[in-house]
Amino acid sequence: MIYRSRNALENAELSDALENVKRHDFNGTVIRSVYMCGQTWVVFSDVCKALGYKNPSSEHKRVSDDQKRHIDIGLKNALAVCVNLDGLKRYAALSSKPVAVEFQRWTAEEFRKGACRP
C-alpha cells in the first residue's frame, strides 16, 4: 500500500484525483470513487458503511495490500483508504451481511468496465 502525505503528492496527481471523484448512490449511501493510475478506486469506508460495518480500519485488513492504497480525495488532513475493483468484489463476496448480495449486484452494474472513467 502506498502511504504518502498530501505534501508528497505531485500537483498533477492531486489535481487528477480531486477532479475525478465521482459519487454513486447505493440505497441512500454515497459511495465515492476515483479513476486514477489506470484503475477505478473506491473509498473503503463508504463500502463498509453501505454493508453495515462500523469499523473500516479493522475491516481493511481483509483486503490484500496490492488491492488497496491511500489516495487524497480532498479529506482534511487525511488520505482515504481506497480499494480497486478486484478488492471491492472480493471484499463484498466475503461479507456475511445480508445486504452483501444486493451490493455485489449493484457494484457489477455501477462499476462495469469503463463506467467510471472520465
Folded structure, characterized:
Strands 1-2-3-5-4 form a five-stranded antiparallel beta sheet, with helices on both faces. The protein has helices spanning 11-19, 44-51, 56-59, 85-94, 100-110, and strands at 22-26, 29-36, 39-43, 68-71, 80-84. The chain has one domain: Mlu1-box Binding Protein, DNA-binding Domain (Roll), CATH 3.10.260. With 118 residues, it is of the alpha+beta class.
Number of E-state strands: 5
Number of helices: 5
Question: How much strand content do the residues show?
Answer: 15-25%
Poorly predicted parts: 1-5
Strand order of the largest sheet: 1-2-3-5-4
List the helices and strands and how they pair.
Layout: H1 11-19, E1 22-26, E2 29-36, E3 39-43, H2 44-51, H3 56-59, E4 68-71, E5 80-84, H4 85-94, H5 100-110
Antiparallel strand pairs: 1-2, 2-3, 3-5, 4-5
Brief write-up:
The protein contains 5 helices and 5 strands; from the N terminus they run αβββααββαα. With 118 residues, it is of the alpha+beta class.
Summary tags:
single chain, 118 residues, alpha+beta, Mlu1-box Binding Protein, DNA-binding Domain, five-stranded antiparallel sheet, 5 helices, disordered N terminus
